[in-house]
């Protein structure tokens, strides 16, 4: 048996010994004979989407196997507690976990109550609770959101609130699953700084991340997971694919004239006059909470403007929201794609888009059982199949590895060249560089088109 991967410290906070795990109704193990030791400091977990990163992380707080069920063999301990025999409620006092999907993690309606929730459960005194909530909100830079409703936050803001909720508990072990996947550069830098401070203070911090450049430089150890096994070969970079030069844009597909958008009578972006054309990719850029998602929803017609005029050409709208799980409800991934073709009365072979997005082997799986990156691809397949006239994508590379991102670039470029009008909200600078014809910066309540297309 191979020696366990070790973080380079003398005392291990977590130990996995010959650990294998199978999700319910599956034959292949999600984790396969894993030997791993994690100590104080920062451990970065890398690898492809669906390779086992999230499953490995969920072992550390007992969600695997206690919540997900299935079969498990081998041994695992965290902070001296046996994962298999210790209830998750007890493990939660030691292990703080920030999930890939922060929209599924919130309990209370407002930010302040949400951050205080865990402290209430463990009986922290009121004054100490207030102090720890204040400290946690400041740590991730969301003090200004204290009284906001969770439902009004952007995906990136929700991620930072979820991290604050964990930091307030001051856990011995902090586990973060794709913590910067929806964050703007400032938010990502805040998270990286928080992670480094936690590690320097003697805590064990475990981070699974595709956007790992900043974290990798300060990591105590790097663990690559592929096919459920610890596999350092999977840590090799994948070459990026760049979209080809295409023809000039065509006729106008949608437009805003003096539009103001917002929610709960609060204007986010005011007096917007922009448009988009067929065969063109418009990228919405800017900080979390600036209004990018709200603008996309207004283009789609799912949110009415507070004022102004919105026009769009007839035709099918393909809309990928920030939370892909919200649109996945069929028995399997293939059925999601088939439903779109049926609803739009379009002819097409679901296998083509499933192949393009690397989903062929997952076609018969229930989408909500997949990893975050796999669910993202399943949602993209469901909305982009066929010939949509208007494509709206909100953080489309969320949770994606390099291979999946390359597939997305090729797919979006093909739709663009076929005449679709495309609008993307993204913090992914390389995606913006590869696909944007025009960039609109959403910041400070204004929408401003940049002077130059990214090189």
Low-confidence stretches: 233-238
> Per the principal axes of the C-alpha atoms, what is the gross shape?
globular
CATH fold call of the largest domain: Rossmann fold
Query: What fraction of the residues are assigned to beta strands by DSSP?
Result: 25-35%
Backbone structural class: alpha/beta
**Order of strands, widest sheet:** 6-7-8-3-9-10
| Amino-to-carboxy terminus distance | 50 Å
Protein described:
The chain has 455 residues and is of the alpha/beta class. The chain folds into 2 domains: 12-235, P-loop containing nucleotide triphosphate hydrolases (Rossmann fold, 3-Layer(aba) Sandwich), CATH 3.40.50.300; 252-449, P-loop containing nucleotide triphosphate hydrolases (Rossmann fold). Helices cover 31% and strands 26% of the residues. It has 14 helices and 19 strands. The strands form 4 sheets. Strands 6-7-8-3-9-10 form a 6-stranded mixed sheet, with helices on both faces. It has a 6-stranded mixed sheet with strand order 15-16-17-13-18-19, sandwiched between helices. Helix 5 (126-139) packs across helix 6 (155-168). The chain is globular. 48% of the residues are buried.
Chain-wise SSE layout:
Layout: E1 12-22, E2 31-39, E3 41-46, H1 53-60, H2 63-66, E4 71-78, E5 81-82, H3 88-91, E6 95-98, H4 111-121, H5 126-139, H6 155-168, E7 173-177, H7 185-200, E8 204-208, H8 213-216, E9 221-226, E10 229-230, E11 252-263, E12 266-277, E13 280-285, H9 292-300, E14 307-312, E15 317-320, H10 333-344, H11 350-356, H12 372-384, E16 390-394, H13 402-417, E17 421-425, H14 429-435, E18 438-443, E19 446-449
Parallel strand pairs: 3-8, 3-9, 6-7, 7-8, 13-17, 13-18, 15-16, 16-17
Antiparallel strand pairs: 1-2, 1-4, 4-5, 9-10, 11-12, 11-14, 18-19
Helix pairs in contact: 4-5, 4-6, 5-6, 10-12
